[in-house]
Amino acid sequence: MRDATLVTVAGREPAHRHGPVNPPISRASTILFPSVEAYERARTHEGITYGRAGTSTTYAFEEALAALEGGHRSIALASGKAACNLVLAALTQAGDHILVVDSVYAPTRQFCDRTLARFGVETSYYDPRLGAEIDALIRPNTRLIFLESPGSLTFEVQDVPAIVEVAKKRGVLTAIDNTWATPVFFKPLACGVDISIQAVTKYIGGHSDLMMGAVTTGEAIHMFLRQRIYEFGAPASPEDCWLALRGLRTLVARLERHQKSALEVARWLERRPEVARVLYPALESHPDHSLWRRDFTGASGLFGLVLKPFPKKAVCAMVDGLQHFGIGASWGGFESLVLVTYPERWRTAVPWRAEGPTLRLHIGLEDPEDLIRDLEAGFQRLQAEARS
Ligand SMILES: *Cc1c(COP(=O)(O)O)cnc(C)c1O
Questions:
Q1: N or C: which end of the chain has fewer CB within 10 A?
Q2: Is the domain 3-249 a CATH 3.40.640.10 member?
Q3: What does the longest C-alpha to C-alpha distance in the chain come to?
Q4: CATH class held by domain 252-387
């Protein structure tokens, strides 16, 4: 079954539906059993036994996402951040060393530097453009390599197969934050990565109205992770699982549209005199374009933009006046967004050097012509304010 078909049928448990197309929202703390034996059997066989481990709505979402990821099981969590942090915390102990990509989502970096460090886990950041050369950074106590591709804010594409090959040879686990591509455009588990993480908040939710994360793995590591993650007690709510499942049904269709519009806007931006670089791997001009072509089947609607040197007040005049781009965190919903970003504040392995201010755009489901006209007026404000 291809992904576009799969997202319409996965996690629907026809035998338990009694008619409605979608599973109901099942809210529960207590789950009742007819006997001690039935309760104990459910607990040892990953049945639904207590609200903290999920209800039938949670399981329906997890089943659907695991199918799309090509994994054994998924675990739904309260946010994308919880998913990243719990994987990092569940797999490490005092004395361990981990390798984290320098372009990682900044709050993931903060968790490593503050919380993991307090528990005696050392983090080294590595150049996102390292492939097999990562071998030289692996120490005897290196437990995990954490990837995110393309990188948050700066959009470098990692050579995932090369890193996985080295990690397997050295007995190191790999986890990837695959939120940008979603399992529709990149399948980490098929590439040999041990753990695939999604901020479901973004494209799977797709409508800017829920917070959720998910961790998907093969069979070997699933039970270990599920038990550790259960100890933290940060499940997704059944309402959010229900919304995320609704989002998943249209994920493939929405992503196709995000991709088409993002490419159109990105190509237009590349030709603007105010723009130094567009950080979108789907563009031929992107330094990692061939890597992206090799490993990904598409590009989502989020990319970066480096302007030529302009004063901050000119950038603010441009951004503040945009009609169709909201100013705000997150992305992956139906609507376009813009943020001024500061990647140079985070880098430690390789400094981020840019010609001018950096923006991040999320291209939503609006007509791209409207977005281009809006940006064009924005560039006029940018130029006018820079001259004044
Ligand atoms: C948003 C985001 C997260 C965190 O997800 P939340 O649901 O907001 O906690 C993690 N990784 C990436 C790449 C993200 O963009």
A1: C
A2: yes
A3: 79
A4: alpha beta
